Amino acid sequence: MENEEKLVSITVVHNGPYIVDGKFKLIDKDNREVVLNGKNALCRCGHSHRKPYCDGTHAKIHFDDTAQL
Fold first, then answer.
1. Cβ proximity of 38 and 26 under 8 Å
2. 3-class DSSP state for residue 32?
3. CA 27 to CA 42: how far, in whole Å?
4. Digits of tens for pLDDT over the chain (69 positions)?
5. Distance CA 40, CA 67 (A)
6. Which of 7, 37, 53, 60 is deepest in the core (most CB within 10 A)?
């Protein structure tokens, strides 16, 4: 359907980032807005040097999502 609204999907990767797929607006800590489209990996471990984006640090620190609330 041409006018059908497309949903953004967010997938939680086991011991890894959130994968956001679709078009969405990201507002960073400095209130800057950027529109992203496609698949984007967002940090979930809290240790990325490119926050809010994932840089793979979760693998280096052996992030364990089973310890999360």
1. no
2. coil
3. 13
4. 455 678 999 999 999 999 999 999 999 989 999 999 999 999 999 999 999 999 999 999 999 999 755
5. 24
6. 53
- Neighbouring CB atoms inside 10 A of 22's CB total 14
CB atoms within 10 A of CB 44: 19
Evaluate whether 37 touches 26 at the Cβ level (below 8 Å): no
Write down all domains in the chain, each with its CATH number in brackets: 9-67 (3.40.5.90)
Q: What is the pLDDT of residue 2?
A: 54
CA distance 28 to 33: 7
DSSP collapsed to 3 states, the chain: CCCCCCCCEEEECCCCCEEEECCEEEECCCCCEEEECCEEEECCCCCCCCCCECCCHHHHCCCCHHHCC
* Beta strand 24-27 pairing with 33-36: antiparallel
